[in-house]
Design a protein that fits this description.
Layout: H1 2-13, E1 18-28, E2 37-41, E3 44-48, H2 53-68, E4 73-78, H3 81-87, E5 93-102, H4 107-122, E6 126-131, E7 138-142, E8 146-148, H5 154-159, E9 165-169, E10 172-180, E11 185-188, H6 192-203, E12 208-212, E13 228-231, E14 248-251, H7 256-266, E15 273-276, H8 280-294, H9 298-301, E16 304-305, H10 317-336
Parallel strand pairs: 11-12, 11-14, 12-13, 14-15, 15-16
Antiparallel strand pairs: 1-2, 1-5, 2-3, 4-5, 6-7, 6-10, 7-8, 9-10
């Protein structure tokens, strides 16, 4: 999403009109759900995708037409049998797509993109608001600043959640989507699996912090996609991090003792996911240590996922990273439904 705003700002300041295409509703076996976006300029697609195939092709053609005859419009696509075959889908579906014309040099849109890019850097919870009614406007919302660039009603604020939502009330129609979340992934231990895991997680939108007590491993050169990399005292992680209910923890240090020490500390935080690498045998040993030395119970251990990741018979560090990322995507999706 950050890349989308960067392209919008670059193109508009260069004097180019754009059309922002957003999937605002979908049903059936459609390739992308609500919140999928694509940006189209005079040369065609600039960035993003709404799933490829027939819907994306038709949407690009509509957008090119709107660049010649500026307007903001809503289209319903029902996938026919031929569309289904072209997309390689099992069954059909329906997609509702909103097209927003963005004129070159538009001060309101440029102000929104600049503010959004600044907020991405702060790591705040951030929502993008598209008003579909009355010609429409783009706006933002943060818990700290409220509505930005748009006169949002109180009832819209109350309906914002972690998944895309369309809200219609009092003659106004909005599509709202959270585009940045405050939660991070804290990876304790910067060995081979962590070096494979962080790039995968970063690519699918997780904000990663890589931590180790060895200077040669706590290196930005090893983790170019991490939000930050740092040295940490494993025996007192509170000096370095404060974990919230939106944060994920991956424990993959170089030894059982450090894993136990970190788990003992993390279990006293509200972290939403605690994953620990290792075998079932290692898990039993660490849990026993946590019982005897720290007083934790079996109920406490229900918060820990160990061995970490989905059981896909992963063996190499890269395969293990994929299994962990898949599991964390599922956890994140479940959080988004709350």
């Amino acid at each position: 999403m950050k890349e989308l705003f960067q392209h919008i700002h670059q193109k508009l300041t260069a004097g180019e009109d754009l059309v922002l295409i957003t999937v605002i509703a979908s049903s059936g076996a459609t390739p992308r759900g609500a919140g999928a976006r694509m940006l189209v300029g005079k040369e065609g697609r600039v960035c993003g995708t709404i799933g490829g195939g027939a819907v994306e092709y038709r949407s690009q053609q509509i957008a090119l037409g709107l660049l010649k005859n500026p307007d903001c419009v809503e289209y319903d696509f029902s996938l026919t049998r031929d569309d289904v075959q072209n997309l390689g889908m099992i069954c059909g579906g329906a997609v509702k797509v909103y097209f927003r014309f963005l004129p070159a040099y538009d001060p309101q849109v440029l102000a929104i993109t600049e503010k959004a890019l600044a907020l991405f850097e702060t790591g705040e919870d951030l929502w993008l608001l598209s008003e579909i009614s009355d010609g429409g406007r783009l706006g933002l919302y943060t818990k700290a600043d409220g509505f930005l660039g748009i006169d949002g009603p109180k009832w819209l604020e109350e309906r914002l959640c972690h998944k895309p939502v369309r809200v219609t009330e009092e003659g106004r129609d909005f599509f709202a989507e959270q585009i940045n979340a405050s939660g991070k992934v804290y990876v304790f231990g910067c060995g081979h699996v962590a070096q494979e895991l962080v790039p995968v997680l970063s690519h699918v939108g997780f904000r990663c912090v890589a931590l180790d007590d060895r200077p040669e491993f706590a290196s930005t050169a090893l983790f170019p996609t991490a939000e930050s990399v740092g040295l940490i005292d494993f025996t007192d992680i509170s000096k370095t991090v404060t974990l919230t209910e939106r944060d994920f923890v991956c424990v993959m240090t170089r030894g059982h003792a450090y894993d136990a020490v970190i788990q003992a500390q993390v279990l006293h935080t509200p972290a939403c996911y605690i994953g620990v690498i290792g075998s079932a045998h290692k898990k039993a040993g660490v849990f026993q240590k946590l019982r005897e030395e720290y007083g934790f119970t079996d109920e406490d251990f229900t918060r820990i996922t160990s061995p970490i990741g989905l059981n896909i018979r992963a063996e190499t560090p890269a395969e293990i990273a994929i299994s962990i990322a898949a599991q964390m995507i599922a956890v994140r999706a479940a959080l988004g439904e709350k």
